[in-house]
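call fold target=Transcription antitermination protein NusB
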Amino acid sequence: MRFRKKARENGLIVLYRWDIRGDSIEKVLEEYLEEKGIKNDEVIDYTKKLLSTVKDRLTQIDSLISEYSEGWSLDRLGYIERNALRLGVAELLYMNPPDPGRAFNDYIDLVKRYADGKAAKFVNGILSGIYKDYKATSSAKRAG
């Protein structure tokens, strides 16, 4: 499952660049894959799936992040934090990864790597809150 970890990192970097530049996600991804020489089909496919999920559900995802980031507007979040949250919410809520705990930890590790420990704690808190509430709501729907 190492391909998912690499895809998560690729997704974060692509979203970071997209957020700064404003070009299409597809264009930024294409440039990034070429720049890094990434050829692994599993990595590329999962990266594309992550990014398309974020793109297709961006309004919902950003709304959730804003709701849980009490006192912090989306624009106040750093590029790394904002986009790690977008990817984490997209994957955990809409893609049903086989190991949600691993996905969660990968996003926290990426924030530590590209931002810092304080940012990672913030992302951890927001992502945990969203995911716990989502799981509780999903369980209640299945039981009802």
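return ok
The chain has a mean pLDDT of 94. The first helix runs from residue 2 to 21.
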